[in-house]
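Design review, sub-item: ligand-bound model
Attendees: FS, YL, KQ
YL presented the inputs for the adenosine monophosphate complex:
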Amino acid sequence: MKILLNNTSLFKSLRPFNDLGFIPTMGGIHKGHLSLINKSKKLCKKTIVSIFLNPKQFNNKKDLKSYPRNIKKDLKILKKTKKVDFVYLPKFKDVYKDKKKSRITLNNKDKILCAKFRKGHFEGVLDVMNILTKIINPNKIFMGEKDFQQLYLVKNFLEKKYPTKIIACKTIRDKNKIALSSRNILLKESDLHKAGNIYKKLVNIKKGTNNKKNISNFLIEQKKQLEINYKIKIDYLELRNKKNLKYTKKSNNSRLFVAYYLNKVRLIDNI
Ligand code: AMP
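KQ shared the predicted structure:
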């Protein structure tokens, strides 16, 4: 596993290879990330993982400050897999020429779910994914369905611009069924337990949307109940079509999208 600390070393090392699988991450490596690596190992000749905590996608300074980081531990986990050929650890200046905000803008129809509640977040994500794709030039990029809206926006954006294919990978969950996330480390054991119960409740709510006449009212009521019963703040609880993210009244071909705060930690999921 070769560690690439700057772009000169990256260009030199990647030049001989044209069947690259790329897994972009912000570190805090967990089994969700490892599932993307496993898929890349199966489908591509070489696998490259990047660890870059992209400041431009954080709409909240406190969130960036508290984001879990432990490069030493991450590298140890990645090395142990024996499936990673390269780890790219760029500095800010390897990725960006200046500190200016992203020039990428979202269409109005995309300003939904997390884009509505985290202003500037996806503009920052698209900006960094655009630059990393240009620098690395991978055949395939592996991304998790846990961040479904991110996957949707990045796929639409990059596949129009580059020959690179975006491969969607299933959400990996822990024993409580909570979607694995680097931020879970910020949660207490009791919060993890609570999040597990919330997940079970969400699965039932999703089932409950089947054949409901007024899904919108049903979800408004369920959202209120969840907020009261679990003492959480929910940004959104919405049923949307999984192909185009439009509101839907049918529970097949749809996902129930949720974002909520548990003790100041923002969790997202889709079911
Ligand atoms: P992050 O480091 O959180 O930016 O995530 C890097 C990549 O890993 C993204 O494509 C995420 O969607 C994916 N990912 C994060 N958590 C999971 C999970 N629990 N299951 C599958 N993929 C995940």
